[in-house]
Design goal:
kynureninase activity; Aspartate Aminotransferase, domain 1; alpha/beta; 415 residues; single chain; seven-stranded mixed β-sheet; four-stranded antiparallel β-sheet; Aspartate Aminotransferase, domain 2; PyrdxlP-dep_Trfase_major; pyridine nucleotide biosynthesis; 13 helices; PyrdxlP-dep_Trfase_small
Amino acid sequence: MDSLPDLAAVEAMDEADPLRVFRSRFALPAGVIYLDGNSLGAASHEVFAEVRQAAMEEWGNGLIRSWNSAGWFHLPLELGDRVGRLIGAAEGQTVVTDSTSINIYKTLHAALAMRPGRNVIVAEGDSFPTDIYMAEGVLSTRPGITLRLEGRDASTIEELIDDSVAVVLVNHVNYKSGELRDMAALTKRIQAAGALVIWDLCHSAGALPVDLDGADADFAVGCTYKYLNGGPGAPAFIYAAKRHHASIVQPLSGWWGHARPFAFEQSFDGDAGIKRFLCGTQPILSLRALKGALSIWDEVDMEALRRKSIALTDLFIRLVETKCGQYGVELETTRDSEKRGSQVSFIHSNAYEVMQALIERGVIGDFRAPSTLRFGFTPLYVSYHDVWRAVTVLEDILSSGSWKDARFAVRGAVT
């Protein structure tokens, strides 16, 4: 193994970083090392400009005229195509709308309708819970449909797939461990069994290159408030391969998904394309914030982003294990960078208290029950020096035992 880099070497890495120019585009608080962009991305200055324009000029002065004059009505499709470029989707296959949870519900129903006679949904037992909860919600409306979970009903998803499976809901990057799945290989395996796949991209969109079309994926969902920096509660997205558009039937048949929404007809006639996944009136101010956030991505080289992500996470793992390994931290994320998203998780028996101590010192990561310290690395605004400083603070907290202060044991809401 190469020798551990010193501070001078880390600073040289920042000097050579082709993405360093993006850091100044974000409104980062002074003195804060932000390693929680996998929960909520930082705001860019472009976001503030878009929201001011939309609220003060378009809403304030344009009023209802802005649905047309400012292009509000077309934002779900316009932004869908911009997200699509980041997830390997050709135009007309992605729409920005609703939340990830609602979009999971819609796509699961759509997939089940496309596979009549099949009665099984497959998902991951260690998925982010909303995926499982929404699958259970679908089951409550579809008598005879059952749910199989990886880790409960079999060790791997592959073992659960047979000719009774209609759809597999799977995360590209595991929210807790950061493990990255092979999208192309698993998609091929699922489709070979006659099933459809829905990829959850919440922890990969904006974190690494994604190629939905290249993998021949069926559906995908994801959020825009993590690595895409769209803001708290920013609208999510749905991808549906064009070959499926004529077959899509989803239960939330709102007026925005109608083929002729302003004809005000009594019966629903779904749009022929990706618009069929729309429901009701869209949150324009949130969409405009996302528009500002996505403007930066037109300039980003996704391969350079991935290289920096790997370098940041590799450096963090090496520094933590070398400087903090003696204090009870254990790596939970894979060491194989090709199988890792843009986050690193460590286990510690007092992870909650340690994380609260870190946050008080200005190093913001997050805690996941029961014992995970989770750190997200957004290459557009996280520097190698940030990594060095974060580990220095973590080492001090662990070596001094300052995390044992009683105030860190008081548990509040953890997002």
